[in-house]
Write a structure and sequence with these properties.
With about 200 residues, the chain is an alpha+beta fold. The chain has five helices and ten strands, in the order αββαααβββββαβββ. The N terminus is likely disordered.
């Protein structure tokens, strides 16, 4: 899946390779296609004093559909999902490290029409958040098209070596998510875990 520019090249190479292997393992065990409803990805990169988290999910897990939002009801569902994705304090609870949130970027391009690029809720200037809306040329109603939502979170940490665990609140916020493939990478080590609503914690050490 497409990653944002927040991640370093080396981190992306390591993370992307691991995520591919994990995703293939999930596919083999469930006999499903690569685009699995209920399944999402969480990629975490630690470098220097920076912590970056990227969450990727099929749109249906978050809003209940994958087509372009055209009706008022659909647009309200997209707005609601974006607002929830901005609640980083609810979605990610960290133990140790002294990490402070800097920026959130949300890409919902697959769910909005070209003329609706300004449809999503306004930025919260106090948190420097922005929406990465990109043009999607897939036509509404294509049965073989899939829309992903990508949300990226950037933090600055006082002592990232002291970050011991991350509790993920995405399952409670979005009940459509059943399972999450989580992959994390640091300068000297990396790890992976499969998260569920009953097991939502990543332990880094």
């Amino acid at each position: 899946m497409k990653k944002t520019r927040l991640f370093s090249t080396m981190a992306l190479i390591i993370v992307s390779t691991a995520v591919v292997h994990l995703a293939r393992a999930e596919e083999s065990s469930s006999s499903l296609d690569a685009h699995v409803h209920g399944l999402s990805e969480l990629v975490i990169a630690m470098e220097g004093g920076r912590l970056e988290i990227e969450f990727t999910s099929p749109a249906i897990n978050l809003v209940g559909f994958e087509h372009k939002a055209s009706s008022t009801k659909d647009k309200q569902a997209v707005d609601s999902a974006v607002l929830k994705l901005r609640q980083h304090k609810t979605l990610f609870l960290m133990s140790g490290g002294g990490c402070a949130h800097i920026e959130t970027s949300i890409d919902i391009a697959g769910l909005i029409e070209a003329e609706d690029h300004d449809h999503a809720p306004h930025k919260d200037a106090t948190e420097h958040e922005h929406d990465g809306h990109k043009t999607n040329h897939e036509e509404h109603g294509e049965t073989n098209s899939h829309s992903d939502v990508v949300a990226s979170y950037q933090y600055r940490c006082e002592n990232i070596a002291e970050l011991s665990e991350l509790s993920v609140g995405l399952f409670e916020t979005f009940p459509g998510i059943d399972k999450m493939i989580a992959q994390w990478v640091a300068p000297t080590q990396q790890g992976a875990a499969t998260l569920t609503v009953n097991s939502p914690i990543i332990k880094f050490r």
